[in-house]
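Hi R.,

Here's the chain you asked about this morning:
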Amino acid sequence: MQPPTTSTTLLRDLGANAQSPRWAELVARYRPALLSFLAAKFPSLPDVADDLVQETFLALAKRLPDYRHAPDDKGHFHAYLSGILRFLAVDELRRRAREEGARTDAAVVAAAGEPTEDESRAWRHAAYEVALAQYLADPAVQTRTKEIFRRVALAGEDPATVAAAYGLPRNAVDQIRSRATRKLRELAATLAARDP
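And the predicted structure, written out as tokens:
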């Protein structure tokens, strides 16, 4: 199962029409990764995560008419989108600090700056989590294959033990894990890096 990719045509369509039904495509592609990114980067905000992601898409709708994709100059689209989310999250943390009468932590202010390598890792981790969920939900992948992958790759069970439980040779279990891992890498790379 290939995740949808964002195209320049899609961004152009959305920039030209904020009411376009094609918003569902963009939201389906980026919402899970944005939620995961937010949980990794701003773990103190789970109560407003959905609101912040929705605000991110609303802010994007206002900015898209002027957005020009230039990955060599500005980076990938997902970095642009996660940058909007990052600023909204920092604003929320600052608002909470003001309400509590506390000073805003320097780390919060630093989070408002340029994306860091830590953020890039958080985005890649978010993409992997989304890819894993897509893989495990894919009806084209046999249930037995998913169960074997879960046991060996996710739960860390001994491949020989799992092979015996399913009446398979050990190398069959290794092949299942290898194919699934390759598919997950492909899905995660698509989510993490492929932009218009």
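Residues 97 and 104 are 6 Å apart (CA to CA).

Let me know if you need anything else.
M.
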